[in-house]
Amino acid sequence: MRLEIQRVNNVFEGRSFGSAGTYEKIVGRAYGEVDPTHPLNREIGNLDKTPANAKGRVEYAVDFCVLKPTDLGKSNRRLLYDTPNRGDKLALIDINDAQKGPTSNDPVSVADAGNGFLMRQGYVLVFSAWQGDVQPGEGHMLAAFPVATDNGAPIVGDSREEMIFGHTDSPAVLPLTYPAHSLDQSDATLTVRLYEEDARVPVPAERWRYVSPRQIEIDLAEDSDAGAIYEFIYPACDPVVMGLGFAAVRDFVAYMRSSGPDAAGQPHPMSPDPSTPAIDHVIAYGRSQPGRFLREFVRLGFNQDLNGGRVFDGIYASIAGSRRIFLNEPFAQPGRFHRQQEDHVYPGDQFPFTYATRTDSISGKTDGILARSLASNTCPKIIHVDSSTEFWLGRSSLVVTDEHGRDIEIPDEVRVFLFSGTGHAGPIMLNHAAVFSQNPAYSMNFLNYNPLNRSLLVALDQWATRGVPPPDSRIPRLGDGTLVPPSPQVETGFPAIPGVRHPERVNELSEMDYSQQPPAPVPGKAYRVLVPKVDADGNEIAGIRLPDISVPLGTHTGWNLRGAGFSAGALMLVGSYFPFAVTRAERQANGDSRPSLEERYPSHAAYVAAVTRAAAELQEARLLLAEDAERYIAAANASSVGG
To answer: Long-range CB contacts (< 8 A, 24+ apart) of 368-377?
Structure first.
């Protein structure tokens, strides 16, 4: 590993964070090389077909960024590795409550530090690129990985693109992840369908054209739906060796926790004394796509570094569901992830789903996320958290059940939590323009679960560094009746709310036949996917229930439906919020079975007392920090509920 330091500067306007003091930022580029013959690199797809240097090694480069106390001696000697999501930094948003905005990827201001939680703890924050197809712009972290060849000749294979445009403006442009090997339209197929399960309808050749090897243009029909799925299958070339992303993270993090000079002899940026490493422990954080990346990182054995040591001592895998990632294959597209309507048949969502090693009767395979790391004695401690949306769209039940929906044991090295009543990415969806282009049928659920991220990160740190057991898993289970089929509505317990349509389906899963394009489900090989049961208010019974759920002002769900003109009725990647009526008279006039606010909270003091009790119970269970309990109580006091 050779580091090119591009700039070092003070950040957060000189703000001091408790005993950690002020922070500085190091930005640069890391240059690495991988030996294709090393046993720990053999899992990297197409690595043996990649041009090598004179030493027989494959070269790559990735962006990196370090946020550390100016005086490194004031750190807590922990490194928090924030795995970027499509090139974006997330930890300051998800843990520090910083706002997602223009400087999220280049934090400099006091506002970019949010509430300063991670800095007050004294963490060294490290970010590095791993995804080889992220486009420049918006401060994205970029990786440069080589292209595989067939002894110097182009490798050609089918690639498949899906696009839901979210508009009906014509012509519409569909970018291609890999260049087309041929611009002959007869070598490619373009189809359209309104819903994932619909038959594919060919788009006539006169209605689409190649603009370049990297782009096609489509004339949309006048009566087209903005939610329709366009699928383009074409002969592509020049597959990027995307699996190098695993090695890039492994080797960069291993170097960051070392103390020696880099390959060019430059002093370590955090350990100028080569005999004294500045870092004792490393914890990885990954939300959504990075959470799926980390699950596959561990499954493929990359948590063992080239010296046989452990890369990550702890992993916080957030809203990954049961999925992994479409990264380590020819013509991979790691940005894809599987939902009911979008990207449904891409690779990356097949067995294994569980952390424990088990045999799957549907695929006939035996595997588990932790199998290799347990064998090499490099297993990290893992906290896996999911929102309610992940049960509906990410098949989270398969993390804790077998293929038939029966409860299974969770390994001692893992804790699993449902954040009850929360939506995917919570309040961050406020800034997600793509969601609003789907015309959600119901008001969106912006319940903020960041307080749970903070408390569970503290628990993971204590577990991974000092062996202090974290709180027990809190998840729905088939055995206690809190994990149920998604339909009919009576099975979930969801109440009849005026004007609300309950989902009729969940994001189903079958074993897939990837030998054909497009891939197809294998008949008779379906998995049983379950969802959390809800109470009479429509709020989930199991999981960690924030005061917003245990002392509710409305119903929070993990599901929402696409609206008219956008494949109406299909599930969306957000939740819904249905507020309670304010008065009994209003409730009765609406025909709402849920008690009104005045029926629940006869006075403001009664509401504040209920919130105070709920916060105290979570704090006692180590699921809420004192500072966040105080925030909930202050918000309740400032509200007009019961007034």
So the answer is: 368/299, 369/295, 369/298, 369/299, 370/298, 370/299, 370/411, 370/413, 370/414, 371/299, 372/298, 372/299, 372/300, 372/301, 372/304, 373/298, 373/301, 373/303, 373/304, 374/413, 376/301, 376/304, 376/308
- SS3 call for 474: strand
Can you give 380-393 as a three-state secondary structure string?
CEEEEEEEHHHHHH
Q: What span, in angstroms and rounded, lies between the C-alpha atoms of 327 and 343? A: 14
Q: In the chain, how long is the greatest CA-to-CA distance? A: 81
C-alpha 416/C-alpha 419 separation (Å) is: 10
Whole-angstrom distance, CA of residue 444 vs CA of residue 134: 29
Q: Which residue from 473, 486, 471, 478 is spatially nearest to 356, judged by alpha carbons?
A: 473
Q: Whole-prediction pTM value?
A: 0.97
Residues 297 and 295: their CA atoms lie apart, in Å, by 5
CA distances from 269 to 284, 310, 312, 572 (A): 20, 21, 20, 44
Instruction: Give the count of alpha carbons within 13 A of 619, CB side only.
Output: 15
**429-479 pLDDT per residue, tens:** 666 655 556 789 999 999 999 999 999 999 999 999 999 999 999 999 999
Amino acid at site 191: T
The tens digit of pLDDT for each residue in 177-206 reads: 999 999 999 999 999 999 999 999 999 999
Cα gap 501→210, rounded to integer Å: 42
